[in-house]
Design goal:
Elements (H helix, E strand, L loop, with lengths): L1 E6 L2 E5 L8 E10 L5 E9 L5 E7 L4 H15 L4 E4 L9
Parallel strand pairs: 3-6
Antiparallel strand pairs: 1-2, 3-4, 4-5
């Protein structure tokens, strides 16, 4: 693992990815239905194989729902060394 402090308030951490299940990336992708109602898709991807481990859609996500999805994947595949959160978009409170 390397840590690069390239500027004030900026921190970059990179992990060596040597095998599947080492690092997962997690992101929320927003979209709208035909009637303009918003929804989000939680995507979790294995960074080594680039396999989509989860693509779960909801109108909004609460923290416990994200934890439930990660727990489900942990039981199926085991825990990764790291989970990267690519972006964060805030939802209404649960």
């Amino acid at each position: 693992m390397s840590l690069d402090d390239s500027g004030e308030g900026s921190r970059k951490v990179s992990l060596e990815i040597g095998d599947s299940n080492d690092v997962w990336a997690m992101d929320f992708m927003p979209d709208r239905l035909l009637d303009e109602r918003p929804f989000q898709i939680l995507t979790i991807v294995d960074c080594f194989t680039r396999a989509a481990l989860s693509t779960a859609a909801r109108t909004y996500y609460c923290a416990f729902q994200v934890v439930d999805e990660l727990d489900r994947l942990y039981r199926l595949r085991g825990k990764p060394l790291s989970v990267r959160v690519v972006s964060v978009r805030f939802s209404p409170p649960c």
